[in-house]
Amino acid sequence: MMEFANRLKPLQSNVFADMDQAKAKAKLAGREIIDLSLGSSDLPAQAHVLDAIAQSLPDPSTHGYLLFHGTKTFRQAAANWYTHKFGVAVDPETEVLPLIGSQEGTAHLPLAILNPGDFALLQDPGYPSHAGGVYLASGQVYPMPLLAEHNFLPVFADIPAPVLAQAKMMVLSYPHNPTTATASLTFFQEAVAFCQQHNLVLVHDFPYVDLVFTEESSSSPALSSPSTRQNLAPSILQADPEKTVSIEFFTMSKSYNMGGFRVGYAIGNRDLIRALRQVKAAVDFNQYRGILNGAIAALTGPQDGVRSAVEIFRQRRDAFINALHKIGWQVPIPTATMYIWAKLSEPWTQDSIGFCTQLVEATGVAVSPGAGFGKSGEGYVRFALVHSPEILETAVDRIHQFLSKPD
What we know:
Strand content: 5-15%
Strand order of the largest sheet: 2-8-7-6-5-3-4
Shape: globular
Order of helices and strands: HEHHEHEHEHEHEHHHEHEHHHEHEEEH
Helix content: 40-55%
C-alpha cells in the first residue's frame, strides 16, 4: 500500500474544498447556486492592465523563462508604489520579490524559517494557507485566539513562555480575513517590539490594503486620499521602517481584480527576501512576462478602478447588512475587506459547518463556516460580497426562509 508523508495529514481538510463538495451536491440536486463562500472578486481587471498584457503576447521575447533579474521593472514599480503609499523607502534589488500570488509567499516562507517542531504563531481564525505552509515545513501551529472582546486582535501576553521559546515566526493579516477586523499602527508597533524581543520573524499578509471603507462616496477626496485608508490599513513596514524583523505580502488579486492572474510580491527584510528567493528558485520560475507587464500597468497607471471597486463593495456591504438586519440577524458593519463576519445563533452556535452544509443543500446559498478558519471561528459564518446588491438581497431572502422553516 502506498504511504505518504505525515506532513500531509493536517492538510486533508480545507474549508474551500469542503464547501466545493457541498455546492456540487446542491447543484446536482437542481439548486441554483448563489456562491458567497469564496473571496474571488467578480469585478474585471482594468482595460489598461489587459492592454499591457495583450501587447505582450505577440512579442516572442516574452515567451521564455523569466528569472529574477528579468523582473527588475516590476520590482521597481512595486517599490515605488509602496514608498508613495506608505512613505517607506524600499530597495527593489534586495527588498522585493515577485510572487505567484501572496499565498505562494505565506506557504513557502515557513520552509525558509522553521526547523521540524518549531512553532509558528498564527491567528485563530485565520487564512488556511498560513497553517498549510507551517505544516509543509513540519512545524507546529500555536493558534492565537482572535475574540470579539479584544477587537479580533491577538493578546501577546497570553502566549505561553515554553511556546515562545520554541517559536520562530508570527503571522498577522490586517485588514483581516475572515473577521474583517482592522489594526492600528500602534498595535503593529507593539507586534514589532514583541517579535524583536523574542527573536521572531514577523510576517504580514496584506491583501486588503485598499478595501477599506469610509462613509463618503467614491468622489469624495477623503476616499481617494491614501492617508484615510492608511489609518485603518497601515503597513507593517511603517512600524518597522528599518525592516529589522518584518516581511509583508501584497497581491494584485483584491485591489486590482487580478486573482486569476496570480501575481503578487513580498517586501521586507533583505535576509528574509533572500531566503524566500532561495526556496522559490527550487520550486518555480516567475510568471509569464506579459502578466508582470499588466501588474506594472496596474501599479503605475490610473487608480480610478481601485476607488471604484471600493465603492462597489461598500454599496454591497450596505445592501447585505440592511437585508440581514431586516430579517433580525444583527451583524456589525465592517470597515474593511469584502466579507461579512456574522455570529450564528442557536442551534448553530457550535456547528457552523452543519449550518453551511444544510443552507446550501436547502437554498443553494453557499457561505463559509467559521470553524474552517480555526477553532475560534466556530459559531460564525463568513459571507463574501462577490455579487450585485440584488443577488445579495435574494440570498438573504433564501437564508430567511431557511431560518424560518419548522424544526
